Amino acid sequence: MIILNAKLSLLQQFHNGTLAGKGIDGICKALNIPYREKSRLLPLLNELIKDGELFQTPDGSYGTPEQLRLIKGVLRGNERGFAFLLPENKEEFPDDIFIPHRSLHGAMHGDTVFAKKKFYNGQAEGEIVAILERGFKEIVGVFKRDRRAGYLIPDDKRYFSEIYIPISECSHIKSGVKAVAKITDYPYGKSPGGKIIEILGDDDDFFAEELSIIRSFALKEEFPQAVEKAAINAEKRGITEADIANRRDFRDELIVTVDGADTRDIDDAISVKKVGDKYLLGVHIADVTHYVPYRSTLDKEAFERGTSVYFPDRVLPMFPRALSNGICSLNENEDRLTLSCLMTIDKKGRVIASEIVEGVICSKHKMTYDEVTKILENDEETRAKYALASDMVATFAELTRILQTAREKKGSVDLEVKEAKILFDGESISVPDHEPNREFSHQIIEQFMVLANETVAQYMQSIEAPFVYRVHEKPTEEKANAFRIFAQNLGLIARFKDKDVNPYDYQKILNSAKGLAVYPTLNRVMLRSMQKARYSSENLGHFGLASDCYCHFTSPIRRYPDLCMHRIIKDVLNGNYGHACDVYGGFVEEAAAQSSDKERRATEAEREVDSLYATMYMSERIDEEYDAVISGVTSFGLFAELPNAIEGFIPIESLYGQFEFIPERFLLKGNRESYSLGEEIRVSVSDVDFEKRRTIFKFLGKLVSEE
Questions:
Q1: What H or E segment, with its residue span, contains residue 164?
Q2: 371 CB-near residues (< 8 Å, 6+ apart)
Q3: Residue bearing the bigger pLDDT, 135 or 706
Q4: Among 502, 409, 404, which residue's Cα sits nearest to residue 445?
Q5: Rounded CA gap, 510 and 447, in Å?
Q6: Angle, CA of 349, 355 and 357, to the nearest 5°
Q7: DSSP character at residue 671
Q8: Rounded Cα–Cα distance for residues 398 and 689 (Å)
């Protein structure tokens, strides 16, 4: 009977398989416990369930998650009341799993859950077994009130349940405002209960709508007072002689920064010398970790934020401005601490020697991309302004072309996907027409940063130190196959093997389409066929860059993985390899997962806010006509992209005829007219949908090719 008094012993019986998958009757029988004494056993089982050691399925079976074949994942809801489970283990469960409303058992969009696969009427689906963590503790939406109660209607329709607010908590709140509700309870079979904790503004207030997006992604505008104070203290401390005593001194060298004209947080600087037929490239990165110790107030806040987030009217930085724009920013003519990657590169673009050192620099010039372009175009005024650096800029360009050629030979996939550039000057919104090619000055910085990231990652892998890699896995076999068929349907040669597709296969197809009308379409579909880049404690290579080993090292002011890796690198440089392994060996996996999640959230939030601004911009252009390109084909209509990269929607019911959607060909086939990805059309703006942040187009006709 010891089993009745020891959870550990009971759990051991599950782990060795004796009790796995049994219900309470079977457990009693296996343990020779009289059924009438099951009341003594149930509390122990319930405690083990509460501890997360055991789970009980709806049919009453007990077991560990592995024994019950439970699938851990995150729910993605649908406004119609069902959801899909996104499995955590994509290798074992590559496909999302449909969860009908009847099998959600109180789980909501965003929740982390355990689910079990089952069959219903011959169809595979999932059933929620346990809710491990609620995904949303605060919900943003429109508040409505009647005589009996208040309700918050979520903006995110994937969260398909209203939040019930007791009338005693909301009688003073005006119906129709944008608000934030904190969820206080989850009564089974009923709407979640909550209370209003913030009023954002009227429902039709543009900036209240933007603020609601920021809140819905749990992004922070302000820093806690303790974090601000820590940043100010770090800035006041400045740089002491002790700080630079054991650093490589680069202050007398010609080092410059190249950024956008409005950049304030400068975390990278560069220098290049040519010696014979070799190039000495220095990539100098702000040493933020000098001011942000591990597990400090500043570090915990940065870990929580994960990344800086950029909107048309504001930036939500990862660090307070005292750090990001102050002591850590590599400002012109100011001494700054760095972690520098020094590379010797031969005429074929190969790094034949490299070194990572702690340094101190004094940037001689804060140059802009436009100014670098003008120097390369021999603009006399700009060359005179940067007389000392003009020759080095020419060397920048020379080395960049060598690196581009080398990377192209490796098979790097250089996609050209249009993105709308939303500009806001505080009063009006503007969206300039998209420029098809990045300025060469941008490519200079891009090539230098990529090379430094690759060089650092290769070194850290070679010494088997714990690390956070930037990985981009190859396309799945299914998506590679769909892309290959699509490319062949465009008349392009695509003969790669779906299982073994490599970057060079994609690059070859892309290059074969340059100059053709299908080129933009091919870029778009190729991007959709690829997996999303993410962070990982395991090196899995980077498909898009055709790199065997890659990381993010160059932006510690605005990305947490870079900050994390700087600490590990510095430990290694200072002879503390064992300390790095002990302290960060387990943390890198946590940092990779957290950073990947925060990056996804930031990207989605930026996209949502851009869509809001684009919708407002187009709302002032009703009935205006534009040339456009079909950028998306669905069973319910077409998406069309304007020259400024703003996308609008053409509902299928506004098109004449009956249609069949052929997804593998991105084709809407009609009995009168068919529509396919990449076709040029004429549209007018008929309406905007602020709730969906979408512009509605009216189809006017196809454009006739002049060829």
A1: strand 163-166
A2: 382, 385, 386
A3: 135
A4: 404
A5: 20
A6: 135
A7: S
A8: 49
In tens, the pLDDT along 142-190 reads 999 998 999 999 999 899 899 999 999 999 999 999 999 999 999 988 8
Dihedrals phi, psi of 21, to nearest 5 degrees? 80, 5
pLDDT per residue over 201-237, tens digit each?
Answer: 998 899 999 999 999 999 999 999 999 999 999 999 9
Gap between the Cα atoms of 500 and 618, Å rounded: 44
Amino acid at 605: A
Cα 536 to chain centroid distance, Å, stands at 13
Please answer whether residues 289 and 574 qualify as being in contact, where contact means their C-beta atoms are separated by less than 8 angstroms: no
Looking at 319-466, list the stretches that DSSP marks H as alpha helix, in order from N- to C-terminal side: 321, 369-376, 380-385, 390-410, 440-462
Tell me the HSE value of 566 on the side-chain side, using a 13 A CA sphere. 30
Beta bridge partners of 254: none
Tokens of 372: 């670098």
The helix/strand/coil state of 633 is strand
SS (H, E, C) 116-130: EEEEECCEEEEEEEE
511: how many CB neighbours lie within 10 A of its CB? 12
Please give the C-alpha separations between residue 667 and each of 267, 670, 674, in angstroms, as whole numbers: 45, 9, 7
513, 523 contact by CB (below 8 A): no
Compute CA distances 501 → 111, 279, 328, 530, whole Å.
35, 34, 42, 11
Q: Residue 355's CB: how many other CB atoms inside 10 A?
A: 14
**DSSP string over 479-541:** HHHHHHHHHHHTT------STT--HHHHHHHHHHHTTSTTHHHHHHHHHHHSPPPEEESS---
What does the buried/exposed string (b/e) look like for 318-333 if buried means 16 or more CB atoms within 10 Å of the residue's CB? bbbbbbbbbbbbbbee
Tell me how far apart the alpha carbons of residues 349 and 412 are, in angstroms, rounded to a whole number.
14
Contact predicate 690/615, CB 8 Å: yes
For 5, 112, 120, 169, 211, the CA distances from 55, given in Å and listed in that order, are 20, 15, 22, 37, 40
Strands 163-166 and 149-154: antiparallel
